[in-house]
Specification:
Number of helices: 15
Distance between the termini: 38 Å
Oligomer: single chain
Strand content: 15-25%
Helix content: 10-25%
Bound molecules: alpha-D-glucopyranose
Strand order of the largest sheet: 11-10-7-3-2-1-13-12
Shape: globular
Radius of gyration: 24 Å
């Protein structure tokens, strides 16, 4: 159901065609605070040579689209040479581009083109492990005395036939694989084809930091740090406590006490950050934290670690619940750091499905956009989210591509469903390729695609463009603080972003029924304020008063308040 979109302050919003010219920040905050990030999964974004797999030239051809959308930085998931066991997260050369995606020259071309459009590029840094085909590992496994032996984690088994510890791989089974050449086991948190680097070895650190320097020279503005929780393991290999039940891969559940988020991580991060600071670069973390304290640690005691640790506690809140989101935002705010909000990525079911109720999915997609794109913090979007792309999971095991899906089948179908081709138009293969796409295009592409949604003022895409335009130009959305209001409302999430004499009020009905709300903003310092609707999905926007606001199911109401 598309609700009619009344865009009262349309004229106030910057035209969507212009570049997102960087907004000067009075507090001289890092550029990444005002940037909107957008994750591009290169295999699935745009295919320029029609081999069914997206590529760098494809991405370059879509920069205009991204600029118009309001994207300031793209994070490209791994496009380095790789055997593609985990679709690029198994890197065999950190300083090149996989031929399936193009060449280093294509990358430089893309970087230059993006710069012209004020779009920065963030690379994915697969920092925890390499491919088993990386020359470092090939050497490492060749003999116990090889130069690179200690670049990975090799151990004897506990007993004949018993791995060194009970640690369980995220991809199923033990984290240890016996290698016949030397009779020792190597450690792999993910697939066996992804051996973990030994971050206790300074030579590893040097080589990996040099990788970041290499890409900074190629114009990159930062890195998303893959699996950064997992850099270190207990050197004594204590067994992890075993919990009750099984995980989704069918293994015993364990508490990853000895191989997840070890304190040594932070020393590496501080040093990595120093290198980043030399290039005014940003570090974005794939940080799976479970508490405010853990999230806070990632910023560093002196804000000297990760600038943008992604808040997966927010992201994995699957229920559309005002109290739950309120609580999670409060947790993010309580860290004192600059929050980083994400609602979908290449590892989790798309937000359109996770939050959708099957009836109001389009409206809910807009509501989620209005939520995380107006919060205080930096948002990281996922390609296609702005269209309302849905998950299309494989229905037969023989169609599964994701290694996790292959192990987890049928209980867990893997991540192919959220990685399907970007939907550009309603033509063959949604305009992604003229060849055979590596994953099937969801049937929804006929209506949910860039071309169709661009010409529909009520589309999810147009709604994203409007929210993003607002967020780029409104000082309160850029710099204002966050203040929860009507905190006891079980259905409607409301908050203010306050900046001196102005504020933006965001009101989101997270329920499927009509809600009446009223606001008394005296305590918030906005007792007598001029109210002007900025963006709403309501048929009838409140006129100048906030004492009686009626909200349709899943309605969004965003207003500007100016002290009289
Ligand atoms: C991260 C990536 C995921 C990958 C894993 C192993 O979690 O996001 O896609 O499979 O690391 O590199």
């Amino acid at each position: 159901m598309f609700t009619r979109l009344i865009f009262v302050a349309f004229l106030l919003v910057a035209p969507f065609t212009s570049a997102q010219t960087p907004v000067p920040d009075a507090q001289s905050h890092g550029w990444w605070r005002h940037a909107v990030f957008y994750e591009v999964y290169p295999r699935s974004f745009a295919d320029s040579n029609n081999d069914g797999i997206g590529d760098l030239k494809g991405i370059e051809s879509k920069l205009g689209y991204l600029q118009k959308l309001g994207v300031d930085a793209i994070w490209i998931t791994p496009c380095y040479p790789s055997p593609q066991v985990d679709f690029g997260y198994d890197v065999s050369d950190y300083e090149n581009i996989d031929p399936m995606y193009g060449t280093l020259a294509d990358f430089d071309h893309l970087a230059a083109a993006a710069k012209k459009r004020h779009i920065r590029i963030i690379m994915d840094f697969v920092i925890n492990h390499t491919s088993e085909q990386h020359p470092w590992f090939l050497d490492s496994k060749s003999s116990k005395t090889a130069e690179h032996r200690d670049w990975y984690i090799w151990r004897d088994g506990k007993d004949p036939g018993l791995p060194p510890s009970n640690w369980i791989s995220g991809f199923g089974g033990s984290t240890w694989k016996l290698d016949p050449t030397t009779g020792q086991y190597y450690y792999h948190y993910f697939a066996t084809a992804q051996p973990d680097l030994n971050w206790r070895n300074p030579a590893v650190e040097k080589a990996m930091f040099d990788v970041t320097r290499f890409w900074y020279k190629h114009g990159v503005s930062g890195f998303r740090l893959d699996a950064v929780d997992l850099l270190f393991e207990d050197p004594d290999l204590h067994d992890n406590p075993v919990l009750e039940g099984k995980n989704e891969m069918g293994d015993a559940k364990t508490l990853e006490k000895y191989n997840d988020k070890l304190p040594e991580n932070h020393d590496v991060l501080r040093r990595l950050r120093k290198v980043a600071d030399e290039s005014d670069a940003v570090l974005v973390g794939e940080t799976y934290t479970e508490s405010a304290a853990e999230l806070k640690e990632y910023y560093g005691d002196h804000n000297d670690e990760i600038q943008l640790p992604m808040d997966f506690m927010f992201c994995t809140l699957d229920k559309l619940s005002a109290p739950e989101f309120r609580k999670q935002i409060a947790i993010a705010e309580s860290t004192g750091g600059w929050p980083t909000y994400v609602i979908s990525n290449h590892d989790m079911q798309r937000s359109y499905v996770r939050y959708g109720d099957g009836k109001h999915n389009d409206q809910i997609a807009k509501l989620m956009a209005a939520l995380y794109l107006t919060l205080r913090g930096t948002p990281v979007m996922y390609y296609g989210e702005e269209l309302g792309m849905t998950n299309t999971d494989p229905t037969r095991k023989e169609d599964v591509k994701d290694p996790m899906g292959l192990t987890g089948w049928p209980g867990y179908k893997g991540r192919d469903g959220e990685r399907t081709p970007m939907q550009w138009n309603d033509g063959p293969n949604a305009g992604f390729t003229k060849g055979t796409p590596w994953l099937p295009v969801p049937p929804s592409y006929k209506t949910y695609n860039v071309a169709s949604e661009s010409s529909d003022p009520n589309s999810i895409l147009e709604f994203y463009r409007r929210v993003l335009a607002l967020r780029h130009r409104d000082p309160a959305l850029l710099n204002g603080d966050y203040l929860a209001v009507n905190e006891n409302d079980p259905n409607v999430l409301s908050f203010l972003r306050r900046d001196q004499n102005e504020a933006v009020l965001v009101v989101l009905n997270m329920s499927g029924s009509t809600q009446q709300v009223s606001f008394d903003l005296a305590q918030a310092g906005f007792a007598a304020a001029k109210v002007k609707t900025l963006l709403t999905t309501l048929d009838t926007a409140p006129r100048g008063r906030l004492d009686k606001v009626s909200l349709e199911p899943f309605a969004v109401y965003i207003a500007k308040l100016t002290k009289e």
